[in-house]
Write a structure and sequence with these properties.
Helices cover about 45% and strands about 20% of the residues. It has 12 helices and 9 strands. α9 runs antiparallel to α10 and α10 packs antiparallel against α11.
Length: about 325
């Protein structure tokens, strides 16, 4: 039986899937199976797989379209490994990603999920210079109410037991399903972090949601679900969660070049938690909005790219 099951949901992603699978096959840790869940693709995913994938560890499971959560759930149900790694079909892993995560779980039986830092790449697999780095570990439930430290669904290695105890992904959530799952796991297990950028998250138009009303609705569902079973002494954190949620959506609006929508979410954040005006995140957001209003989006983008390059270089030096 393989130690790790890698679950790759794939929907019309044949343009990226070959590179993604190669990044798994290039892992220094070799005791794994790969389950590619063809989620009702209308491109040439099945034909490409049949003609090109010869490694017996890689299997294709085709189904009618059930969405990201449904595809992940199918993979988890078929998985035979003790540990489950999720990987979106357009993202990549550094070669030592699984090895370091497996070693962490083997050495820390109380940990249910281990994540790493994330480096962002563009649609051509070139680094953008930005690294998403969080340090939260141990009991991270409260932290997850404000920020998704795991950063992406391609990041975590999770004990199979976690899904047995907290259930599968919610197929009714079309966004924020990741944080919903991490919160459920964090309510019962400790988290650990590998402080290296071992996941390469691809940014392209296909994975940038612009439907903010749906995102807001799903985020509210996740927050209310999390607090439904929370002890009364921490219910005051609900407003903090909503404040952080609106700052998150404001940044999403910036990414979509909609600074007017970003202003709206910034106002909502302060309505929920006025003291956010003193936070570093709020100040950075306000600077971003001002730069876009005064000089345009391209000027802001040039500034942010330079900032990401400098901070990314510093984080890589720290990791080494």
């Amino acid at each position: 039986m393989p130690k790790v099951s890698v679950v790759i949901p794939a929907y019309n992603s044949v343009a990226y899937l070959p590179e993604t699978i190669n990044s798994v096959l290039s892992q220094s840790f070799k005791d794994f199976e790969v389950l590619v869940i063809n989620d009702g693709s209308t491109d040439a995913t099945e034909e490409w797989f049949t003609q090109n994938v010869k490694d017996p560890r890689v299997k294709l499971i085709s189904q009618e379209n059930q969405g990201l959560s449904g595809a992940r759930n199918t993979g988890i149900q078929y998985a035979q490994g003790d540990y489950i790694a999720l990987l979106d079909a357009d993202d990549l892993w550094e070669p030592t990603k699984l090895e370091k995560q497996v070693l962490c779980l083997e050495a820390n039986p109380e940990v249910g999920l281990v994540y790493t830092w994330t480096a962002l790449i563009d649609q051509y697999s070139k680094p953008t210079g930005r690294i998403v780095a969080h340090h939260a570990e141990g009991n991270v439930w409260q932290t997850l109410l404000e920020v998704n430290v795991v950063a992406s669904g391609s990041n975590p290695l999770i004990r199979r037991d976690c899904f047995d105890n907290v259930g599968l992904f919610d197929i009714n959530l079309s966004s924020n399903e990741d944080r919903d799952m991490w919160l459920r796991i964090a309510s019962k297990y400790l988290f650990a972090v590998i402080k290296e950028p071992l996941v390469l998250y691809r940014q392209h138009q296909g994975n940038m949601s612009k439907d903010f009303s749906v995102m807001l609705k799903n985020c509210r569902i996740v927050i209310e679900r999390a607090f439904a079973s929370a002890p009364t002494e921490i219910l005051h954190l609900r407003n903090r969660s909503y404040g952080s949620l609106n700052l998150y959506l404001a940044w999403k609006a910036i990414d979509s070049r909609n600074y007017q929508q970003a202003i709206h979410f910034r106002q909502q954040a302060i309505a929920h938690l006025p003291q956010l005006v003193f936070s570093r995140n709020y100040i950075r957001l306000s600077i971003a909005i001002s730069l876009i209003r005064l000089f345009g989006f391209q000027f802001y983008k040039n500034c942010i790219n330079l900032s990401h390059f400098i901070s990314g270089s510093m984080l890589r030096k720290v990791a080494k």
